[in-house]
Amino acid sequence: MTRFLLLFCLIAQIGFAQCDNGRYQSFIFSDYEVISNIVYGNNQTYLGVSQDLTLDIYRPVGDVSTTRALIMMAHGGSFLTGSKTGPDVVGFCVSMAKMGYVVASINYRLGFPITNMQAGATAAVMRGTQDMKAAIRYFRKDVAENNNQYGIDPNEIYAAGVSAGGFIALHLAYLDQESELPSFLDMNAAGVQGGLDGQSGNPGYSSDVKAIVNICGAIGDTAWIQPGDEPACHFHGTNDNTVPYGSAMLSVLGIPVTDVDGSYSINEKMNQIGLEHCFEIHEGQDHVPSLASPAYADTTLSMMTQFLASQICNTTYDCEYQTIATNVTSIDHQNPELSIYPNPAENGFYLSGLMQNDEISIYNSTGILVDMLKVKNGDWIETTRWPAGLYFLNFKKNNSSSLKVIKQ
């Protein structure tokens, strides 16, 4: 008994130590690396064709920890397009790696027949969810059988997704009973066999997650969400014309598909049953505003990581925006080579990674233009005349990139 208590205390101390020095909440690493195209499974597409399933792993460079939280990330694209390297997810993967997370961005099976949109699209959600589960099992299998080569904590695995990826995260967490499967869904269709867990690989290991992040996704039925289920963090625009904000008909390619419950309805259900969650309303915004707006990307990253950190570190989070502290570089979601340093800046900062000379517009946190400059790679930008606060730099020629900097 004494040995058990000592072991439990040691495990607890290791877990809390992971949260020291700003890990999971601040940019504490200056660089990241990507391990690309790892095969985590295989299954049939809706056409009955065998497909290898791959993922990319993002992790901090110079990190000595071997027990890091793992975030499983799924891209958007209406289950028809998109990839693990899409701009909707890569920026989050890079930023979270620099905060000390290990992030796995997955490819999952795409496509469905349009002859029966309701059954076809629902089966596509099922295939994507089965693939995500196989990817989670891949990491737990690696811990058990391959000496944990990616340095993750198998008890700290979380699922996140954008748009269609949000559907996957939600169904992974809350569609957990065979009896909940819609009657019109043929579970013997190509690539859907194997029940809720599917047959995409790595059987014998758990596909459970501790909590989820849903960015502009929806669920088939909020009745599936029950007390004691996984906590969640949701983001959604009130004017979303792609995925319903509340409960409404989902359309794909302009064709009505099926009724779904968006983030507003999910929030109402979670409030009703007392399930821990956060809900950030993007007032007046359309689908996935974080993809085009650095301000919304910053808000989403901040609230998502603070929520996840509260789950990992067993702390309280009030679902409010917090500026992400950084003592390293700030990188762009679209062009990771572009960076500014130091950040926060006191008297000024350097620009690095410009592909060509450029013009930048500088906005404060309220969206007011405060300066316009012509710049080249390596330039020093003077900030002594700026009031302290958060600023966004929009680049005209370098892939319309955006960066943020904190002026102390």
Features:
single chain, 408 residues, Rossmann fold, Immunoglobulin-like, 2 domains, four-stranded antiparallel sheet, 24% helix
What does the model show?
This protein has two domains: 17-313, 3-Layer(aba) Sandwich (Rossmann fold); 330-407, Immunoglobulin-like (Sandwich). With 408 residues, it is α/β, with parallel strands linked by helices. The termini are far apart. Mean pLDDT is 89; it is low at 1-17. It is built from six helices and 19 strands. It has helices at residues 2-17, 87-98, 117-145, 164-174, 263-273, 294-313; strands spanning 32-44, 50-60, 68-74, 102-106, 152-162, 212-215, 218-219, 232-237, 247-252, 255-262, 277-282, 330-331, 339-341, 348-352, 358-364, 369-375, 380-382, 389-395, 402-407.
Number of helices: 6
CATH class placement of the largest domain: Alpha Beta
Structural class: alpha/beta
Helical fraction: 10-25%
The CATH homologous superfamily of the largest domain: Alpha/Beta hydrolase fold, catalytic domain
Quickly give the CATH architecture of the largest domain.
3-Layer(aba) Sandwich
- List the uncertain runs: 1-17
Compute the number of structural domains: 2
List the helices and strands and how they pair.
Blueprint: H1 2-17, E1 32-44, E2 50-60, E3 68-74, H2 87-98, E4 102-106, H3 117-145, E5 152-162, H4 164-174, E6 212-215, E7 218-219, E8 232-237, E9 247-252, E10 255-262, H5 263-273, E11 277-282, H6 294-313, E12 330-331, E13 339-341, E14 348-352, E15 358-364, E16 369-375, E17 380-382, E18 389-395, E19 402-407
Helix pairs in contact: 3-4
